[in-house]
Amino acid sequence: MGDTTITTGPPTGAGSMGVTVNGTATPQAGAAESADCAIPAARQAAPPGRYQGCATGAAGGGGGEETAGDPAAAPAHDPRAHGFLPERPPVRSMIGTWTRLDATARAAATAPDREAAVALVERARRAGELAALRQRVSRLSLRNAEAAAMRIAVIAVSCGWCGLDPQAPAAREVADEAFLDLWAAIAHRIDHDQFVALPTLALHNWAPERKPRRHIPIDQLARTEALVPIVRWAPEGQPLSRLDRLMLAATRLEAHGIWLFRLAETLAGRSPDDSSTPTALRRLVRVQHALRAQLLAEAADLAAAPATPQQRAVLGALAEQGALEPPVLQAADAVLGIGGRRMGDGRRQLLRRHLPAQHRAWLSAMDRHCAPVRTLAHRGGPDAAVYREAQESLIALRRTYTALVQAAARPDSTPLTVAA
Asked: What residue spans carry the region label Disordered (predicted)?
């Protein structure tokens, strides 16, 4: 694959995330987590319209096939608890009929090219596997539907179909019709049409390398345990690929970004003249520095990992769809408004379309409730200086993430370089 320009976030200017395709990221459990990040949970009540939802369904166990969960009956998810990570570790092994989808996804991820991946889908259609799965979608608990969605996403990007609307008539001229029907049914089940993107591919495609001895919060689990991908982009028995490591790095970024979500809720509704506002902003700066250190810790292993033209094509296709923006960076953008003037609200919503509806609602609430804090951008004085420092630290964090994507997309193992 030739050099391709990828955009993983706002265009040039503040918060720029232009990326050139061709490289990867590495799973290290010991990310730099500053003691300064030990911020108490927000004391104030959440603002109206704060994110609700992300029901997990009642399905337990390791894989589970068909036990329909009632999303309305599930507990509300608080992003201060663990950000946009799933409520529980992703489903590692699907069971029953769904093992066929699992096997197809694993084979598609390691296919040498798109044509080979498409052939796998066509073979599954001829065997009647896709139609059989389509009939069982309504029986899936929400948790297992999300697990199926991750595998659908792997297949879709492997085949070069990630930009398709599975319900559009034109899509049927490009992609396998039975696969599109299954894709659309899964999208309806999880109430998320644009799920073929980084959040699905990363946040639902990891597991701790060893079983934890006791139950620990999901964000702590993802921070402290060595992680492995559930569906590998590298063949079994071979080292993890750059794409594997990039996805795991995105998961750990989300786990280490939990304090950012808590600070977002703390700042929501605060007056710029509130004495606690600059304190929260200083803590936000420290969190963003810690996240940047986490990404830099991933860089060397990522750059040294193997990559294939197929994996670079996958990354390029996701970038072309604007589907590579990590949720935690979108949360920081909602607080600080980086790039808002340049890309406009429409562009921001375009980037957010790949998140579940509840996540988008929470980000929109942060847009509204953090607006008073953003007026510091037009003021002078020490509080305004702290706000600008927070913006600059977010710009540096996004540039570091962009450099990691560039490394994942490169055909060589050129060392990672990061702008200050």
From this structure: 1-21, 57-90
